[in-house]
Every structure is written in structure tokens, then in C-alpha cells.
Amino acid sequence: QVQLVESGGGSVQPGGSLRLSCAASGFTFSSNWMYWVRQAPGKGLEWVSTISNGDYRIYYADSVKGRFTISRDNAKNTLYLRMNSLKPEDTAMYYCATGGGGRITPIRYDYRGQGTQVTVSS
């Protein structure tokens, strides 16, 4: 069965950095578009970034562009999100996801992990 396991979250001060990882199993990772999404307390799910399969096209939400970097290692079946210059408004549960139908900003995902919490506060 499909498993997505996120790690790397934590508490940081504004301006700090974190790198999230997502270990994938149960499907052909290299063939799938992968996504990072987040959910802040009391808010809906927000798309953060997308990386395609094959040619590794990358897309970011305007709110994180220039600060976050998505990447993937198909040999390790792992997705990453490097987050720099973190702001309090980046505080959220971060999830990796797949099964978005090959869309840049899916409206739904077939699979999503359990998430890793990121808290940005002074």
C-alpha cells in the first residue's frame, strides 16, 4: 500500500531554516508527480509546491517562491522541501502528497502522509 512519511519539522525562529523529507513506498515514486501542501490552524489545505516526474518541472505558490526549494531523489524514493527565511505565517502542518492527476495545483490528492509540524515563532 502507498505510504508517505514526513519528517524534519520543528520549531524555529523567524528567519530560520528547516528541511522536510518525505519517504515514499508502495508505488513507483519516479513515475509520480509529487506535492507539498500545508494546513495552518483553522484554515484549509494550501498547495505549496509541485515537482513533476521525468523532467522535474517545479512550481511554487507565490507565498513561498524564492524561499522554499522542492527536490526529489528517485534512487531513495524521497521528496524534500528546503525552507529558508521562515516566517510566522509559514506555521502549519506540512504534508507530502501524490495522486494529483498530473495537475500543477490539484484540487484533491489520492494519497497524503500524516504530516510534520512546522512552527515559526520568536
What does this protein look like?
It is a single chain. The protein is mainly beta. The chain has no helices and eleven strands. It has strands at 3-7, 10-12, 18-25, 34-39, 45-51, 58-60, 68-73, 78-83, 92-98, 111-112, 116-120. The strands form two sheets. Strands 2, 4, 5, 6, 9, 10 and 11 form a seven-stranded mixed beta sheet that branches. Strands 1-3-8-7 form a four-stranded antiparallel beta sheet, with no helix packed on it.
Q: What is shown here, in short?
A:
The chain is mostly beta strands and 122 residues long. It is built from no helices and 11 strands.
Order of helices and strands: EEEEEEEEEEE
Poorly predicted segments: none
Per DSSP, what share of the residues sits in E-state strands of 2 or more residues? over 45%
The number of E-state strands comes to: 11
Radius of gyration from the alpha-carbon trace, in angstroms: 13 Å
Largest sheet: 7 strands, mixed
Query: Share of helix among residues?
Result: under 10%
The structural class is mainly beta
Name the shape in a single word. globular
How many alpha or pi helices?
0
Distance between the termini: 40 Å
Give the overall average pLDDT: 96
How would you summarize the topology of this molecule?
Blueprint: E1 3-7, E2 10-12, E3 18-25, E4 34-39, E5 45-51, E6 58-60, E7 68-73, E8 78-83, E9 92-98, E10 111-112, E11 116-120
Parallel strand pairs: 2-11
Antiparallel strand pairs: 1-3, 3-8, 4-5, 4-9, 5-6, 7-8, 9-10, 9-11
